[in-house]
Amino acid sequence: xxxxxxxxxxxxxxxxxxxxxxxxxxxxxxxxxxxxxxxxxxxxxxxxxxxxxxxxxxxxxxxxxxxxxxxxxxxxxxxxxxxxxxxxxxxxxxxxxxxxxxxxxxxxxxxxxxxxxxxxxxxxxxxxxxxxxxxxxxxxxxxxxxxxxxxxxxxxxxxxxxxxxxxxxxxxxxxxxxxxxxxxxxxxxxxxxxxxxxxxxxxxxxxxxxxxxxxxxxxxxxxxxxxx
Length: 228
What we know:
Layout: H1 2-5, E1 8-10, E2 18-20, H2 22-28, E3 35-37, E4 40-50, E5 53-59, E6 62-68, H3 85-95, E7 97-103, E8 106-111, H4 114-123, E9 128-130, H5 134-144, E10 149-151, E11 159-160, E12 167-174, E13 177-184, E14 202-207, E15 210-215, H6 218-227
């Protein structure tokens, strides 16, 4: 595990002590075959990197935008004198990381970039948009697809494509064997991987630098995954 070992550093003040840069160490574990959760140390999990999502919610004559997972609260008190610059940077880096457990064997690492953090902070202020402003909202959402995966029932992307209905079978190491899992890739192999039959019908994401949208057949995906 050389990538994780590189996250271990000597203490600046006490040479015999070492510390682990946790934010870098978590990212270094993405794709490693021997990752476990503290809640179930006997079960290996697949750790992959994902993208935060924006869900467009229509309620009455208003539209609100919800970021999932939400940006974690800042736990560093700027008035506490015992935090040095490195500790503050580490705490902020950890705040931008969230682990989302999709299944018992699958966990996604969501890491907010500076642009995603600023957008999430703005949307956390309960921004609401009149439902009549569909054109303006669609333009804004197309810009956001380069930073977020979008789940919206009534928005159009720059380009619409038919949803890929076939499920993909992916193998990953699990204990002494292999784990087979089925994923939905409605925007093709370069688009996001989703849990079959889960989520909203409309999906928008940036693929190859272009905003692409599609309409998913959730019931068909669910039936296919059940038969398999």
